[in-house]
Amino acid sequence: MGGGAPMPAAAVTPMMEQYIEIKTANPGSLLFYRMGDFYELFFDDAEKASAALGIVLTKRGKHQGADIPMCGVPVHAADDYLQKLIALGFRVAVCEQIEDPAEAKKRGSKSVVRRDVIRLVTPGTITEDKLLNAAESNFLMALGRVKGTPDAYALAWIDISTGAFRVAETDAGRLLADIARVDPRELIVAEPVFHDPELKPVFDGIGRIAEPQPATLFDSASAPARIARFYAVATPDAFGAFSRAELSAIAAAIAYVEKTQKAERPELARPEREENGSTLFIDPATRANLEILRTLSGSRDGSLFKAIDRTVTGGGARLLADRLTAPLTSPDRIAERLDSVSFFRSEPRLCQAVRLALKGVADMPRALSRLALNRGGPRDLGALQAGFEAARAIAETFAATPPPAELGAALAAIAALPAALAAHFGRALADELPLLKRDGGFVRAGYDAELDEMRALASESRKVIAAMERDLIEETGIRSLKIRHNNVLGFYIEVTANHAAALTGSDEAKARFIHRQTMASAMRFTTTELAGLETKIANAADRALSIELAVFETLLREAVAEAEKIRAGAEALAVLDVSAALALLSESEDWCRPQVDSSLAFAVEGGRHPVVEQALRRSGEGPFVANDCDLSPEGDREAGAIWLLTGPNMGGKSTFLRQNALIAILAQMGSFVPAARAHIGVVDRLFSRVGASDDLARGRSTFMVEMVETAAILNQAGERALVILDEIGRGTATFDGLSIAWAAVEYLHTINRCRAIFATHFHEMTALSNKLGRLHNVTMRVKEWEGDVVFLHEVGKGAADRSYGVQVARLAGLPEAVVARAKEVLRQLEEGEVAGKTDRLVDDLPLFSVAVKREAPRPAAPQKADRLGEALAALHPDEMTPREALEALYRLKGMAGE
């Protein structure tokens, strides 16, 4: 905390002594130390925060002979600064004053106001609206591992802002993929596990979100007791049968929540176990390549999620993202979701009514969580009330329309919302609610008689006094009687000396009108009623706020007591939101309901890429060209097909590859798909190797990354997998790359036996279709016109004989001299010895010993008439489609014009 020689203990101020003590107890966190209206930071914390937040670094006194660096942020703006620090990966310990400064003064002039850390703010434990994205979950994840069984892992993840709590077993091989699927903001790991060299690639892969914690948090022996204590049950067995690794992860997550939330206890759902194999496995590279939730640059814009999101609530957006990242593998469960979408699509008026009702729904789970943690305000109560009202309105819209199973279950959860609590909220809460409860004014007029009276006294004291004055005049008959006020007597009754006898003429009058002061021409009195009214007026505002705070606490306790039902109702509203949103999407984008079953089929007619299609529409560049894809088993074959896709760069190969992977994801998440028709046999594992990237931090070149990802696919894909591969082997020498790609296709066909699309520029590989029965050649069609190439973006049967790389280079703007020279070099290569050497090499390798049809060397420069004649003789009009005939005509016309 500073250099120099140690100072005598007496030289350390009491305040700084307290700071150092609290900071020492909270290593690894920036300490927000409350000083009046500011949170102040000192020493290294101040230097780090100043640099991170861009605020002034100053100094405050000395410690051990050196200046103490200091910076501060206003308490009222703390959330904004916390948001920046959390986004940068910092953890913050919030230290508050826990006693009245007046109490500290009573203990002596050198006494310091008692302070303590009330909360640790970490990326995985935030609840404030300003710090959260409404459309994204904010998961804290714990990794459990049992001693003696190094491959027995489990993951437990909590969203403290909503109470969601899930757990699943995993293993070392799929650990990184399972973490990537959940995408936690923070991962806690036992220190010995964190430093295990075998897991270093996993922690390197997820970055700085991993946080080592004491191993005691993960003790599986004490885990059941910790879980039972948190949920106030005798044993966690009632929640389900969990493995030791799962219990370790669950207990660690709970322990970390308790550690960060200090005295507050969040309302967490009981841990829900996810069965292995219940969701589609997507490895991290595939998840990144397909840009499911974010693009490769980290943006939501351009992602699949952004393209399909039509939800109107935060809970609905989070559920949509959850389903998109974890598609199902059960055809029955998928069918239930599809039934919900079909129902809303067939009931457009009801769909619109539901969406209209949902637009008024705030984020109920997050509001409930803040209330449970004593961080909530009146608007959080209002969020629950709005949810209750929307639920009632939605239930009424379904009164005459029986829904399918999934929506029926959602409506049952909505009906189970506590009606008495909803009615209480409706009576108690005002229409306009302040942000902070200390501001008051959130309780509806007429709810509490005393509160109404206090408000009237506080805001209309003159009218109240005037009313009492009129009553006294009427009672005594003294028209000149006045009720006045000064700072010495307060409120008093004043009459002229002539009328004083009327207030003192009898014992009864003397008892009621108490003499306060005699003046030259007047006398002043008070009464018990007036004195009481004066006290009420003086304390009315404080009393009114006190009553409102008591009402707030009552509503809070009632809401927390019904947390389970409220959370279930909120989840039901999210289900309705997602189903209605997907129905609207399918209608507006002309998507079809897929047939999803347990077969090995994969047949898509008129498939489109959902993101690219929308981008083309926005830019006005024309319609998206739809294409078919059929990888279904043929005849009595037991495995799906492999398509070997050739064609030019810029022809649309990568788009075609990705769109079929995305269609599989959409179908299995329970959505309609961008196609005219789709039949998807459930895919259990999805692998995609599309695009080039490197990993220089771990010493991996682009080609090395490509080989690592390809190896993972070949080692894991089974017959139910869908594999999308693009340009395997292009990162090394031609023959090396061709050999690797050739062998990979043979392995996919013979060993993996999976459904696959393999795109390549190695045209020699098309010969494999003569050897491998389930391999089919397809190509991206192009048209040459006056020396240029026109990309048709159509997939058709057959193989490309060239890649049109030089033409693409010309389109990219390479200098004409370079393009011309490239054409000449390409001609020489194609007509020279290189082609022959390639053929001989293929023959020499046993792996490639298949019949390869060789073409005779081209004549040097045939006459135009001879070339036209040969071209005409090669045509077979009876076997040509209209489009192929048109393309042939264009080619002949081009040859005639040369």
Q: Per CATH, which architecture of the largest domain?
A: 3-Layer(aba) Sandwich
| Weakly predicted, low-confidence segments | 1-10, 833-861
- Given the C-alpha coordinates, what overall shape results? elongated
**CATH topology of the largest domain, anyone?**
Rossmann fold
Q: How many domains?
A: 6
| Rg on CA atoms, Å | 38 Å
Classify the secondary structure makeup into a structural class: alpha/beta
Give the termini separation: 82 Å
The strand count comes to 27
Q: Order of strands across the widest beta sheet?
A: 13-23-24-25-21-26-27
How much of the polypeptide forms β-strand, as a percent range?
A: 15-25%
- The CATH class assignment of the largest domain is Alpha Beta
What does the oligomeric state look like here?
A: single chain
What would CATH call the homologous superfamily of the largest domain?
P-loop containing nucleotide triphosphate hydrolases
Number of helices: 33
The description of the largest β-sheet is: 7 strands, mixed
Work out the helicity level: 40-55%
Average pLDDT figure: 87
Descriptive notes:
Belongs to the DNA mismatch repair MutS family. This is DNA mismatch repair protein MutS. Residues 721-737 form the DNA mismatch repair proteins mutS family domain. Keywords: ATP-binding, DNA damage, DNA repair, DNA-binding, Nucleotide-binding. Pfam families: MutS_I (PF01624), MutS_II (PF05188), MutS_III (PF05192), MutS_IV (PF05190), MutS_V (PF00488). This protein is an alpha/beta fold and 898 residues long. The protein folds into 6 domains: 9-121, DNA repair protein MutS, domain I (MutS, DNA mismatch repair protein, domain I, 3-Layer(aba) Sandwich); 134-276, Nucleotidyltransferase, domain 5, CATH 3.30.420.110; 329-418 and 562-589, MutS, DNA mismatch repair protein, Chain A, domain 3 (Orthogonal Bundle), CATH 1.10.1420; 449-532, MutS, DNA mismatch repair protein, Chain A, domain 3; 595-858, 3-Layer(aba) Sandwich (Rossmann fold), CATH 3.40.50; 863-898, no CATH class. It is 45% helix and 17% strand. The protein has 33 helices and 27 strands. It has a 7-stranded mixed beta sheet with strand order 13-23-24-25-21-26-27, with helices on both faces. A 6-stranded mixed beta sheet has the order 3-4-2-1-5-6, sandwiched between helices. A 6-stranded mixed beta sheet has the order 11-10-7-8-9-12. Strand 1 and strand 2 (38-42) form a beta hairpin. Helix 5 runs parallel beside helix 7 and helix 27 (702-716) packs parallel to helix 28. The protein is elongated. The protein starts with 13 loop residues before the first helix and ends with a helix.
